[in-house]
Amino acid sequence: MRISLSTLGCPDWDLDTICTTAADNGFDGVDFRGYREEIDVTQHPQFTDRLVETMARLADAGLTVSGLSTSIRICFADKREENLAEARRYIPLAHELGVDTIRVFGVGDAEEHSLEELARVGGETVRDILALDGAADLRWLVETHDNWTSSADCRLLLDELPDDNTGILWDVGHTTRLGGESPAETLDAIGDRIEYVHVKDAVYAPDDENAKDDGWVFVLPGEGELPIDDALRELDDRGYDGWVVHEHEKRWQPYVADPEVAYPAFAEWYRTVLE
């Protein structure tokens, strides 16, 4: 396994700080989910006019871009053109960076449509995306998120997607905290389609002022109640050799630890668990 940090956790950092911190703490890569003020990196000069500079800085730090995380939501029929426009921006960037992994969301309006209907829409959207130039050379991974958190629901969506170009991004916190599954249960059910992993930790503290709607509060890896140790060991035991990404949500959750604290804590947790 290789570890990567998500830029969701350091929205105020410039590229040099990201690269230096990642390299100094033993990270192998960076997952770009936004850069500074822009959530869509294809809209930032660092990934357009200054892309060559960006690639050189990453290479100098010995880092790989592990993935690009988009806001594409495949199960909304009325967002087809919006989704295709975003895909058209990310495909050439992925090829320039040598990235083969692009994250998308499922989402969809589950109040108006059944999951079966939403899954069919998702399948249609992905086939439309794959028809774009260069798209079929990439892996389009649906995150275990929103309507598609449990393994059974993920399987329903996967059945509508082309096997050769799609898979699952497993957010361990979502399937355990929201889906009610143990890591072993998730891996037994959809482990054959998991190609990328997000990890963060949390405690159940519904009275905390920072608690999410479900009562959970994010904390540093290893300091919470989520079975992320079990997940990492299960992945290791099963021979998973892909990316494990620290998805620290500083951009969305300002109360969480600053990135200069969180990233080293994740790297130390990772090494300790696998000792």
Automatic annotation (TrEMBL):
<dbReference type="Pfam" id="PF01261">
    <property type="entry name" value="AP_endonuc_2"/>
</dbReference>
<dbReference type="InterPro" id="IPR013022">
    <property type="entry name" value="Xyl_isomerase-like_TIM-brl"/>
</dbReference>
<protein>
    <submittedName>
        <fullName>TIM barrel protein</fullName>
    </submittedName>
</protein>
<dbReference type="InterPro" id="IPR036237">
    <property type="entry name" value="Xyl_isomerase-like_sf"/>
</dbReference>
<feature type="domain" description="Xylose isomerase-like TIM barrel">
    <location>
        <begin position="21"/>
        <end position="271"/>
    </location>
</feature>
<dbReference type="InterPro" id="IPR050312">
    <property type="entry name" value="IolE/XylAMocC-like"/>
</dbReference>
